[in-house]
Write a structure and sequence with these properties.
Distance between the termini: 48 Å
Radius of gyration: 26 Å
Strand content: under 5%
Structural class: mainly alpha
CATH class of the largest domain: Mainly Alpha
Oligomer: single chain
CATH topology of the largest domain: Na+/H+ antiporter like fold
Shape: globular
Number of strands: 0
Length: 522
């Protein structure tokens, strides 16, 4: 029995993750919160060994693909358009939170060295990319809010890690230089971005030459790890390497690979990110239980109370920063106010309230060295771990669980410009196809009959796009027709009239047709 027990625990773990996510869609509680609670309970079962969470595992296994995928699915146009708010949150707010937390931590623990207090601030300052997207993307939220939250969570890990590393070096060696760390930040950031672009450029170059779906998908999966290792080896920002790589790949992958490769890699990536996110939150929960088990009950209040205070500080700093950072630039500069009018107050409030912390905070806290340069234990390491855990739990549970009701109360108007852009692009694309068809008739590659037939097909498509709303009822019937076809094919196969091979080919055609139908009104 024992030789299989890790496998069994793994299977139980996987089943739990899937079940939770499936049920989570029906419950008002966001999936990450459910997964953390499940981890807490799972680790409390006697006899279950809690896997040791190695910081390297998080930074090296989980973080690269998650950051890369988050960047890949970010719109570069919207990211650029919102670079001011994203920068103010990802750099400005990280610095402000770090300062606020460090000051309050010093008030609570007067003996704590400043460097350790700053390290603690850097650990709890970046909100988590995964948690925000998991909670907000399901809800009716303005596109711009999502872009800003996602953009922030892509870049903030980089600025927090630079602060963290500087503070830890200062704590361990006793040397600290502000100027040097600012220069380091910009050098690390620039070099990291270049590495990400280089790795992505290589992937595109190789993908253009493979013409085979599986190697192409493998290339995209290897990308984040290659960028991360290269950046780590050169001691520059691995976070920004993954972000830049994902953004670049999004811009150029379509021209490098074929349709099957695009569809399949999307499916592979969706699955990978889903599994990793879920595992991260369950692991988080398990680590909390392990931490609590490792301390005496009498010590808990003295460790959890500072955690609660710092959690409130983290949330309050953001609640103050976001409105100020939104309105101050517009007061100071008429140019900014004219070019980018202030967003609605509801949107500002939503950005200010959404700041769940996650795995990056826990991994950075666990990555704190155990000893200083002179061999003495790292001061306040246990307290830092507990405070980090409290901040993650507090923000995940309090903010994660209140977001959905708050967003419903805010009742944002459904956005139409996405639909308008979609409509415009469809009609333009069909026009281009018509021009191409006329060229084909002129140079004799298309016979008049073919041209007639293709023209009427294009006309049908235009009519269909214009009558998008009517299509819904037709699609229902079309779905029934497809099901009838599929049942007949299955019957023919069962009676031995056609082979499994033929069934599979025809079924794939029906499935692609069904997917095309769904694509029209996504």
């Amino acid at each position: 029995m024992n030789d299989h027990s890790p496998i069994l625990v793994g299977l139980a773990f996987a089943t739990l993750v899937v079940a939770l996510t499936a049920f989570g869609r029906r419950l008002p509680i966001p999936a990450p919160v459910l997964q953390v609670l499940a981890g807490l309970l799972l680790a409390a079962i006697p006899g279950i060994a809690v896997p040791e969470l190695e910081p390297d595992l998080v930074f090296f296994v989980f973080l690269p693909p998650i950051l890369w995928a988050a960047a890949f699915f970010t719109s570069l146009r919207e990211f650029k358009a919102n670079r001011r708010p994203i920068g103010l949150l990802a750099i400005g707010l990280v610095v402000a939170t770090t300062a606020g937390v460090a000051i309050v931590a010093r008030m609570m623990f007067p003996e704590m060295p400043w460097a350790v207090a700053v390290a603690l601030g850097a650990i709890v300052s970046p909100p988590d990319a995964v948690a925000a997207a998991a909670v907000v993307s399901r809800l009716p939220v303005p596109r711009r809010v999502i872009v800003i939250l996602e953009g922030e969570s892509l870049v903030n890990d980089a600025s927090a890690l630079v602060l963290y590393r500087t503070a830890v070096v200062a704590a361990v060696t006793g040397v600290f230089s502000v100027g040097e760390s600012i220069v380091r930040f910009f050098l690390d950031a620039g070099a990291g971005v270049l590495i990400g672009l280089f790795v992505s450029w290589l992937i595109v170059w190789a993908a253009k030459r493979t013409h085979d779906e599986l190697p192409e998908i493998l290339l995209t999966l290897a990308g984040p790890y290659a960028a991360w290792i290269l950046a780590e080896e050169l001691h520059v920002s691995a976070v920004l390497a993954c972000v830049a790589g994902g953004l670049y790949l999004r811009q150029h992958l379509s021209t490098a690979v074929g349709p099957r490769s695009r569809v399949q890699s999307r499916a592979v990536w969706d699955l990978l990110v889903f599994v990793m996110n879920a595992m991260i939150f369950v692991l988080l929960g398990m680590q909390f239980t392990a931490l609590i088990k490792s301390t005496a009950m009498s010590e808990l209040p003295s460790l959890l109370y500072p955690g609660l205070i710092i959690s409130v500080v983290v949330v309050v700093v953001r609640l103050i920063w976001v409105p100020v950072a939104t309105w101050l630039p517009r007061w100071l500069s008429a140019e900014v106010a004219r070019r980018d009018p202030a967003p609605p107050k509801r949107s500002v409030a939503l950005v200010a309230w959404t700041s769940m912390r996650g795995i990056v905070s826990l991994a950075t806290a666990l990555a704190l060295p155990l000893t200083l340069a002179d061999g003495t234990p790292f001061p306040y390491r246990q307290e830092v771990l507990y405070i980090t855990m409290c901040v993650i739990l507090f923000t995940l549970v309090v903010q994660g669980c209140t977001l959905a009701p708050i967003i419903r109360r805010m009742a944002f108007k459904p956005e139409t410009h996405h639909r308008q852009e979609e409509q415009f692009a469809r009609i333009e694309a069909v026009r281009r196809a018509q021009d191409e068809l006329e060229d084909a008739v002129r140079d004799g590659t298309a016979s008049p009959e073919d041209a007639q037939w293709l023209k009427s097909e294009l006309r049908d498509r235009v009519d269909r796009y214009r009558a998008m709303d009517r299509m819904h009822s037709r699609d229902k019937v079309r779905g029934r027709m497809r099901e009838a076809e599929r049942r007949l094919l299955l019957r023919l196969r069962n009676e031995g009239a056609i082979s499994d091979e033929v069934l599979r080919e025809l079924e794939e055609e029906l499935d692609l047709d069904a997917m095309r139908g769904q694509g029209h009104h996504h």
